[in-house]
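Quick one, T. Sequence first:
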Amino acid sequence: MARRPTLHDVAREAGLSPATVDRVLNAREKVREETARRVYDAARKIGYHAAPLIAQRVADARPRLRLGVVLNKERQSFYQQFRAEIEKAVASATGVRASVQVAFCPTQAPADFAALMESMLGKVDAVAATAVAHPEVTEAVKRINAAGVPCLALLNDFAQGVRQHYIGLNNMQVGRIAAQMIALATHRPGKIAVFIGGTRWHGHHLRETGFRAYFREYAPEFHILDTLVNLETRQLTYEATLDLLGRHDDLRGLYCAGGGMEGAIAALRETRAPGEIALVVNELTQESRAALISRHVTMVISTPLAQVCADLVAIASESVRNGLGQVGGQHFLTPNLFLPESV
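Structure tokens:
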């Protein structure tokens, strides 16, 4: 009968002392994750009976990350997908014991965002949010920082100079991409309309700025109409799009820089042939995908949510590990571009 492996055999296989293996096995003292991993790999290799217990010790040796995330528009499919991707990224995180609490802000009011973010203090190690840019939010971030908790901006940059990091798309670039697509898809000079979600969405303003800058530089024959605020709602966008179509016979293109694209799609389906108006929207959802296929949407610019969430976990972990320091920079990801022939 083969001899049953012992603690000393594990130590020999791992190249460590029996005392170190004992500390890992019995959690007598904290050891580095790398050391605990060596002990586990050796125990599993030689068939040591306590290998499952050592695996637990390895997990316990990982640093903890309790992440709090505040999103908005709970009923929108994009934010439902965002939540699912965050939970998936946390569950698959390596090198850290990660957990997440996700809360949805019921309105776009700065006070509501600020209150939800601050309510997570004492429960999480880092806070991330898709909040509006507003002094109330900035003051909340300052108080969160004062508690030693890093705060990260997701998709829409807020509290610049105070928050630790921004993670998302380069929104100026997104606006220029939208403008180039509309200019290329539209073969006759005319008018172009643009919707933003609200006056406090910094990312939407950057998209609008990039959008207008591209037309000034490369397609000055088009006239960009005054920007419309749609509050990211389907009905308001629908009514405003019908009004635009009724008042401007030479409307050639439309860009939805934020939410509410479903309203623009519905209005074009009712009144225009596919491709007659160049429509660019953000985020690939069931509705925007169907509109691409029917060619009522010319292009979708989409956020790579899985990568955003994986990078969020990594950057939050680093911020917690290193502590609050100098304000971090902007972590830009490359947008995914979808055309009718690519879905």
